[in-house]
Amino acid sequence: MDWVEANFLVDPPEPWRGLLMVELMDLGYEGFEDTSHGLKAYIPKTASDATALRKLRVAKDPHCRITYTVREVPDENWNARWESSFQPIDVDGRVHIRAGFHPEVQGFEHQLVITPKMAFGTGHHATTRMMVRAILDLDLTGKRVLDLGCGTGVLAILAEQRGAAEVLAIDNDPVAVENALETMALNGCERTVVEEGGTDLTDRGVFDAILANIERNTLNRAMPDLYRALSPGSVLLLSGFVAQDLGYMQDAARAHGLHPAGEDMEGEWVMLKCTKNGTRP
Q1: Edge to edge, what strands does the sheet with 269-276 contain?
Q2: Amino acid 215: pLDDT
Q3: Cα–Cα 20 to 30 A to 120, which of 22, 104, 195, 271?
Q4: 166 burial class (0-12, 13-18, 19+ CB within 10 angstroms)?
Q5: What is the pLDDT at residue 119?
Q6: CATH number of 120-276
């Protein structure tokens, strides 16, 4: 599959780069790379719409200036570039996320090995790091966990390493599913199942914890399904949205019977923790 790369120059970069990324996610862009002057975003060629880029809302804001160029990128070259630029990630000295071609570093509670292809969730993005930190604060021993929109599967791997008895990792992108399956094998995961699917969780059973690092609009639409899929006293971790949307997401959670129970923030990005029935695990 060939890809389209949109290279954005954003002046000033913050907070407009993050807002731009959120809007691009809504348009179907799947891979992102911060640059010194903006952002590079990637979308399958078959899903690319040049007209949609000309209508970006954030580009119309008078407080920033956004310009861009577009080019096609063959799949093979895209992956080679991604791998060559991938660097290991240290999350608070507790979790080390690396590719298989990086040496193992001792002294971490958790070692996560991923294949850095186009799937979202390498650990470089603030939303993934915040989700990792939040998972470290949960007792998942013997629990059933859902990683919704799993990308590389990095959160599912950590959940299994934290003692989850069963983990279901779902993504609607077949490329991400393939990537996650490869990642599970690299990490010796035996209690994680990877499947292709969306936010309709009918017949998936109930979960003690749901991890959903997607984007605001999808999270909002999925809130009724997320509520039904949570067991009483369970926890829901949400990320993929920016600080200005925190109130909106808290209200959406409350409207569907969930209790906002804390948040984390890194840059302009936010992670929201919710519980069902107001209990705090």
Answers
A1: 192-196, 166-171, 144-148, 207-213, 230-242, 269-276, 258-266
A2: 83
A3: 104
A4: middle
A5: 47
A6: 3.40.50.150
pLDDT of residue 200: 93
Give dist(CA 81, CA 132) in Å, integer: 25
Task: Enter the tokens of residue 188.
Answer: 């010796």
pLDDT in the model for residue 279: 46
> Residues in the chain with pLDDT < 50?
119, 279-281
Among 77, 50, 30, 37, residue whose Cα is nearest residue 171: 30
- Quickly name the fold that domain 3-81 has: Alpha-Beta Plaits (3.30.70)
pTM: 0.80
**CA dihedral sign of residues 224, 228, 232, 236:** negative
Place of tokens 């949205």: 241
Q: What is the pLDDT of residue 32?
A: 80
- Can you give the pLDDT at residue 233? 92
pLDDT at position 85: 64
Domains of the chain, by residue range, sit at 3-81, 120-276
Supply the pLDDT for residue 193: 97
Q: What letters, b where the CB count within 10 A reaches 16 and e where it falls short, cover 237-262?
A: bbbbbbeebbeebbebbeebebbbbe
* C-beta separation of 274 from 236 below 8 A: yes
